[in-house]
Amino acid sequence: MSLLLKLAALIDWINTRVGRFSIWLVLAASVISAGNAFSRYGFSLSSNAMLEVQWYLYAAVFMLCAGYTLLRNQHVRIDLISNRMSAKGRNWVDVIGIVVFLIPVAVMIMWMSWPGFVDSYVNMEESSNAGGLIRWPVRLLIPVGFALLALQALSELIKRVAFLVGAGPDPLEKPVEHGVAASGDAQEGTK
């Protein structure tokens, strides 16, 4: 179990780095968006390439941060039901969901999106818009994003099984950063 927990920690580290890097993509997309609006309304200049860069950056944030979102336990959950369950019950539900749904779907989408990326790369597919960009970089985000999600799902599965067999802490507890719970609730972070 120790080796598997080290693998889970490595996957967590990778997705944390990707998630923190992606924060800067949001800033870049916002600056480009503001620049586009300023040039369009201030000088009547517009660029399809700049509009597509925004789209690429937002796509990168959403695709690359799926694994990070799972790591931080910020994904959609039915709290009304899960809050009434014991810690073991919640972890069992997650184990079943990860094994039956999350990993198979993430791997399937990754697998099915790879040929679309390869075809786009080989043919150097370009946007149909005048002055548009090549498409393969944004198509690559799909298999990469789902690979990161599948890896994080594996990490979460390892951590939940470790908890269930008594070899690790409850991974569903709110993560604490700098003494404050991730939800921003300072009082919960000090408990």
Q: What is the compact description of this entry?
A:
One of its GO terms (cellular component) is plasma membrane. The protein has 191 residues and is an all-alpha fold.
Description of the molecule:
With 191 residues, this protein is an all-alpha fold. It has helices at 2-43, 48-64, 66-71, 79-82, 87-122, 136-164, 186-189, and strands at 176-177, 180-181. It has one domain. It contains seven helices and two strands. Helix 1 runs antiparallel to helix 2 (48-64), helix 1 (2-43) packs antiparallel against helix 6 and helix 5 runs antiparallel to helix 6. The protein starts with a helix and ends with a helix. Residues 178-191 have low confidence and may be disordered. It is a multi-pass membrane protein. The complex comprises the extracytoplasmic solute receptor protein and the two transmembrane proteins. Part of the tripartite ATP-independent periplasmic (TRAP) transport system. GO terms for molecular function: transmembrane transporter activity.
